[in-house]
Design goal:
By secondary structure, this protein is mostly helical. The protein has one domain. Helices cover 76% and strands 0% of the residues. The chain has nine helices and no strands. Helix 8 runs antiparallel to helix 9. The radius of gyration is 17 Å and the shape is globular.
Amino acid sequence: MSGRLLAWLALIGAQILLNYASRATGGKPDRNTVYHWSTAAQALVFYGLLFGIVLLISRERTTELLALRRPRSWTRAAGTAALVIVGVIVLELAVEPFLHANREQGYTPTSWQPEHAGAFAASFVVLVFVGPFVEEATFRGLGYSLLVPYGELLAILATGVLFGLAHGLVEALPVLVALGVGLAFLRARTDSLYPGFVLHALFNAIALTLAVA
């Protein structure tokens, strides 16, 4: 096992442990967290640190390992992305009445609060653009590239499961793993980070928009 892969596994393992520990000790999440300026600020710090470590692990081979290249076919990418997002949304709708996963992460406000529109806009930008790019670079970029020599199926399933666990959630875990597997499948089909980033950003944008609609 390469040193890069060990470093990446240690990074993701630490993220999983910290997030589950925080969940166990933090109590019930604030459903209106997207209306706080601190949400965007804290997320920026976290994603900045995470991306910095990813760049350190991938140094000298960043473009290659993060798959920062055009997809083989944008048409194929669009078709695969459509299948993935429809499948994930169907699964989410099926399990939501039983698991109430949308409430768990704290990003489902009770109502639209126009007086906090600025803070919401900041949270929206970070959660829809910054977060998905860093997570895609971490999992479908670096992680997938380091695992695929051991088999494409392993890379798809492993990055999907670890992506789900890294969020530190329980009720939302099935949907997050399905999304992670779908995004990794999209990465495998397109050989590029960009389609997955677009799909991930779209998924988060839809979720946040519907939450306040």
